[in-house]
Structures are given as C-alpha cells and as structure tokens.
Structure prediction request, 668 residues.
Amino acid sequence: MKPEAGMDRSVSELRGVGARRAAVLGEAGIHTIRDLLYHLPRRYLDRSLILPIAQIPPGQEVTLIGQVRHKRFIPGARPRFVLVVEDGTEEIACVWFHGARYLQRHFEEGDTLALSGRVEHFQGRPQLTHPECEFVANAGEPELLHTGGIIPLYTTSADMKEKGLRSRGFRRLVRAALEECAAGLPDPLSAAARQRLELAELGGSLRQVHFPRTWEEMVQARRRLAFDECYALQTRLAHRRLARRQGKAPPLPPSRRLVPALLEGLPFALTGAQRRVAGEIAADLEQALPMCRLLQGDVGSGKTLVALLAMLQAVEAGFQAALMAPTEILAEQHAATLAALARPLGVEVQLLVGGMPAAQRCTALAAIASGAAPLVVGTHALIQGGVEFAGMGLAVVDEQHRFGVAQREELQRKGPGVHLLVMTATPIPRTLALALYGDLETSALDELPPGRQPVRTALRGPERRPQIREFAADQIRQGRQVYIVYPLVEESERLAVISASEGLAELKEGPLRGFSLGLLHGQLRPEEKNRVARAFKAGEIQALVCTTVVEVGVDVPNATVMIVEHAERFGLAQLHQLRGRVGRGAQQSYCILIAGSQTAGEAERLEVLCQTQDGFEIARRDLELRGPGEVLGLRQAGLSELTVADLAGDAALMLRAREEAFQCAGLS
Ligand code: ADP
Ligand code: MG
Prediction:
C-alpha cells in the first residue's frame, strides 16, 4: 500500500476539508484520518425502523421514505416551512421553524426523501417536527447516512459546530474517510488470531463502529477496538517486565538471625496471609533478578510488618533497605514503628524528610552514604539529588498509588540493582490492577489480624451533628480518641483548613469543651505536624480535627471514632481509607459519615460503605459509580489512552489481551 493511501494522511486530504475545517479539527486533536476514524460516536440513535406512514405509531422514532407533494413557506411572527410528503399509504406534514426561508429553496416537488424523527399528531394528522432529512437519489438501494439506520452522534466542539461540523457534517467526513481507507486497511491481528480471540476484522470494525447496521454489529466492532487498546497497553507492560528480566540485583539469602529474632519478640503471631506473602517476597529476594512485587492489602492488614521482614533480609545480607512514604507524618510514624521493632535487634533506623533542619539533614545524608544507616525511612526527599546510598538492596514504596511509576523507579535507581516492593491499601479490582500494575508480580494480604471488629458505619444528616458530637464526647470519657475530618473544598487545602479551624473552634466551645483537641492539616510546618501527630498517638490529644492528611497510614489503635464531615465530597475508596484509621485496636469502633443535601445517587453511593467493610468490594463499586479516572487519582496512571475499552466492563477482554500480549512477548 502506498503510504499516502494510509491512515496517517492529514484530514485535509479528505473531500470537504479545507484549511479552516482542518484547523478546527486539529483543535479537537483530529489531525490524521486515523484520528478522525478513532473519534468514535458518543452514542447512537436508532433510526433503523423504516415504516409506511399509515403504520407509524405516535411517539415512535422512525424513518419513512416518501415523495414531496407540496411545500409551503408560512411567514409570520414564527415563520415555518412545511413540506407535505406522501408514500402511497398516507401523507405526513414535516415542519421546520429554524431555517425556514433557506429550506424552501432546498426542496422540490417530487423529490424522494428519507425522513427520521418522532411522529406526533397535530390536529389529528401525523406530523414530524425538525426531522433528520436526506435525499434518496434513486429508489432501489439507497445508502443513507443520516436516517434509516443506526445513526452515530459525535461529541463536537462549539468551534466544530460553527464550521459545519455538527454530527451531520462529521458523519459525512467519517464516511469519506472510511471510503478512502477502511477497505485496504491492514489488520495487525492475523486471521487465525482473530478467530481464536473471536474478534472481527479491523477495517470492517471501524466501518461498523460508525455505521452499524445492527446493535450487535456495533457491540462487536467496539469489542474489537477495545481489544486493540488493551493489547497495546499489555504489550507495553510485557516489554517493561521483559526489560526488567535483563536487570540484575543482589541475591539476598533468607534471614537466619534478624527475622527469627523479630518474630520471637512480637506480642502476636503473623497472620496466615502475612506468612504466605512474606514467603513469596523472601523467595523473590533470593533471586539475582530484581524483584518487582506489588503488595495489596486492605487497611490494617499489617503491611508494615511484612515490609520490615523483607528489609531485615536485605540488612542481614549486608545491604541497605529504604522505605518511602507519601507524607512526612507517615514517614515519621513508620520510622518510629520500625525503630521500636528493629533497634532491639541492633538495627538503626534513619529518617529523611524534606522538613529537616540542615544540620540534622547533613547527619542523615552522611549516615545513608556511609552505610551506617541500614534502614532508611523517608518521603520524596529520598529520591532527590544529593541522596547517595552506600549500597541499597531493597526499596519499599508505601501507599504506592500516591506516587507515579517514575518515582518508584527513581528510588530503585538509587542502587545498581535494587529489589522493589510497592505496597498499596487501595484494593483495586483485578482489571484495573492488570491495567496499572500488569508488569508487577502481585501478592495480597487478604486477611486481617484476629480480633478486629468491623467498624460500625452510619450515614447521617447534618441535623444529627449534636448527638454525634455527644457520642464522641462519651467515647473520649471512656478513654478513647476521635478523628473529625474535613474535606478539601474545590481541591483547595486552604479552604479545608478554614473549615477545619472553624470546626475546631466550635467543638472547643461546645460539645468537646474540656477535652484536649488538636488540629492537623497540610499547611502546618513539618515540625508542628509531627508534634501533633505524635501527641495524638501518645494520647495527649483526645480529638484530632484534621483534613485528609490522616487518610493514609496513620496508626493509632486507641482511636475508635471517625467522624467525616461533608462525606459526599469524598470518593468511596478514600472514605474507606479514612475509616481504616479506626478499628485498629480491640475496642468497637465507629465511623460516622455526615452528609449534607445528598441526591439519591449520592446516598446510594455512601450506603455502600455502611453495607460492607470489604475494600475490594468498595473499590469495585467506586469504579462502577465514578469511573476509573475518578478513583483515587488514577488519572496520572496513563489510563487516558483507553478510550474505547471500559475498565469496569471489559475485564474479560483485558485478560485475553494480556494473555495474548504476554505470550507474544515470550512471557507466560
Ligand atoms: P496497613 O496494612 O494498613 O499498613 P499496619 O501495617 O499499619 O497496616 O498494621 C496495622 C496494625 O496491625 C498495626 O498496629 C500492627 O502492629 C498490627 N498488626 C500487624 N500484624 C499483626 C498481626 N499479625 N496480629 C496482630 N496485629 C498485627
Ligand atoms: Mg500502612
């Protein structure tokens, strides 16, 4: 095929596209014929029902074919153009209020027309108002574009509309592009592969996705195009995994000393899931290939301990291990947790965060560079320039969804060959996991430590606030602690701080008077943040008023009440994370969602949390209700390229694409 006959030619080579239209299309991201053909219909109108006029039921969307008997322009305050069309069974009046003057020159008596619309009865006679209309050249087999079939509707920008590219104009362009390209289009999938995967051929699918003759055709065409997207994505993941197999990392022998000593000293036994996952990780670390494992585990499933076991394996083998967390509070907390467990074994923990005083930072950097610090915990500060490790063997990324792929790889590059463990408490449905992390091995902590009681969750209106606060006060009197969370308003941390501060003032004066209250938000200086977080952990602060900075990781087992203000502004997965801050100890815990004027849909969404504690189920519902783009900022993850495939609905297809792509790349 000549290159100029291909899909990559400019749209300006199409009939009907001049410089101005080309520019408008370009604005909408449509430069080539390929872009045009992959600008898929937003939805379709079914005009496939062609009926004789006499048989058209009122109110039904139909197409009829008939001849113009007479036409009339009716001037007046609301000028109208009326066309009377007849098909041998009956007459019907077609009325236009817009463009009446222009239309009167457009039609002649005797023209054969295909008209689509919803038939109404006006003064007892059938009438179509503003029907879609098309000339039928010859009776025989008319190829109709705008009527008489399933008609595509496109999303078109205001500019496009101005340049005659509403759905109608757009349909003409697409038809022209299909005529030029679709027939000779090479299909990257062989006939054998198509048969095996039960997929339609590419050229035909492109034609049918725009102009399907039946709904079934449309579904099949979409399925084919969705597969292509999934396949491209999975091929990239397969190549990433292959590339990693070329890499090298130090084999870390199983720990004989530190890990057994740690387990010995724990006041509890590992859960079955922790034992299994720790085994999977330990086996990976023994390999000379860099581990790349995703550890998924619901909030409170005990990921930190599993990470520590792996880190100790690295330390015992003579390497450093680093743990990166998304916030300073979390990094500080992890450092404290790990130190409490590792110091008795003679293993030091070094903290590195952005907000450290210069002198302290200097000492920290020196300890990291000399290897005097075997365990390093920090924030993004770890991947900045100037941080040199003596010999890193294992990098752990906590709450991995808060970081991009680039950042996790940057941490890994802090050593010549580094094993990587990424952890997330955001349970994602399998399809999404495959799309996002398909290049990683995965482990799941699917069991909570014993004795955890489900968090009692309730959805309440704001009018119940006094009782809710009284309840919180009561819990505090019993020795428990409470979180009260305010949402970001219009993505603005500043406004959230205002509402949290106001909330604090109100609580101090009223229902929580006499208790020790603290305020925690992202705008505090790092030292202040840490001071508050520590004071809450130590029980010196009884009620913590905060923004979503506590969303991830914070571990205060004595806290039993989580009150979320304006819960309707949060995503389900985010609320689940917040709820995960309580129910960490032996006491019954409560999560109270205060939601203002919710719509029925919102109430239904929030009810999901009251019904289940299962993070996977919640994530699945969240995905269904809000779409992947909204679920926890997955926007960053490069899913925007999936325009046809639907992550919620095309799970099976994604799996097939994965098998195919991985097999093709020589991976199992
Ligand atoms: P997450 O998976 O959410 O990061 P953490 O690692 O913070 O969970 O653990 C939550 C709490 O559970 C911590 O207080 C931790 O000490 C405790 N924990 C971890 N493993 C066990 C276990 N096997 N038995 C009892 N408690 C455990
Ligand atoms: Mg955690």
